[in-house]
Amino acid sequence: MSIFLKKLIWANCTITGRMSRYDYWIYGILSFYGTIISIAGLSFFLSYIFENEIFNFIIYLCFGLYIWHAWSVTFKRLHDQNITGAFIFINLIPIIGIISSGVILISCMFRKGTIGPNEYGPDPTEIIRIF
User: Fold this and answer.
1) By the 8 A CB rule, do 124 and 77 touch?
2) Is residue 1 included in any domain, yes or no?
3) What region does 62 belong to: left with phi over 0, alpha with psi -120 to 50, or beta?
């Protein structure tokens, strides 16, 4: 199995560990655009084939899988900054969530992670240097 595929499975299936900024951009931001394009394509194609109930279920399933993916990569990115991943749940508070989601997104995209190991695991950039 290739390293990219192993990292893709790790990025999507767990909420533990740390993720570097580079990996966040690759697995987080680029997958967002891939998901939007996929859901738009599925919407257009499946609306002609299935009835509304099945079509809605498929779209909601795709959206739910994307939410899991977005939370898992954000958890790992917050862990890299030595912040608990549970901090993302502040986004569920109505008015505060709008402001905090922007702060969390900008922090995940641009803020450098903790240098060296922290309580969530080893430094992901040091792991890359070993290879």
Assistant:
1) no
2) no
3) alpha
| Max Cα–Cα distance, the chain, nearest Å | 53
Rounded Cα–Cα distance for residues 101 and 106 (Å): 9
Give the pair of three-digit tokens for residue 21.
Answer: 């900024």
Length of the chain: 131
pTM: 0.77
CB 120 within 8 A of CB 17: yes
pLDDT digits (tens, 9 = 90+) for 34-51: 777 877 777 777 767 766
Range of the domain at 70: 18-118
Cα dihedral 109→90→97→12 (10° resolution): 50
Instruction: Find tokens 């549970």 and name the residue.
Output: 86
